[in-house]
Amino acid sequence: MNAQPLGQFEDWLPGGGAIDLPGADLDWLATARQRALASARALGVPTARHEAWRYTSLKGLIEQAFTPYGAAAPGARPDDLEAHLIAGLDSHRVVLVDGRFAPGLSDLGDLPAGLRIAGLGQLLSQDPDALQGRLTGVAGTGAHLFAALNTVAMRDGLVVLVEPGVRLARPIELIHLAVGTERPGVAQPRTLIALGEGAEATLVERFVGTDEARCCTNLVGEVALGRAATLGHYRVQTEGAQTFHISALHIALESQSRYRGLNVGLGAAWARTDLVARFAGEGAECDLSGLYLAGDRQLIDFHLDVDHAVPGCASRERFKGVLHGKGRAVFDGRVLVARDAQQSDAEMVNNNLLLSANAEIDTKPQLEIYADDVKCSHGTTVGQIEPETLFYLRARGIPAIEARRMLCLAFAEEILADLRPLGPLHGHVAELVGARLERVAFD
Amino acid sequence: MLTIKGLRASVAGREILTGLDLDVGPGEVHAIMGPNGSGKSTLSYVLAGRDGYEVTGGEVRFDGDDLLDLDPEERAQRGLFLAFQYPVELPGVNNTYFLKAALNAIRTARGEAALDSVSFMRLMKERLKVLHLDETLLKRDVNAGFSGGEKKRNEIFQMAMLEPRLAILDETDSGLDIDALRLVADGVNALRSPERSMIVVTHYQRLLDYIQPDHVHVLAKGRIIRSGGKELAMELEEKGYGWITGEEAA
Question: Among partner residues A388, A391, A396, which is closest to B158 by beta-carbon distance?
Answer without folding.
Answer: A396
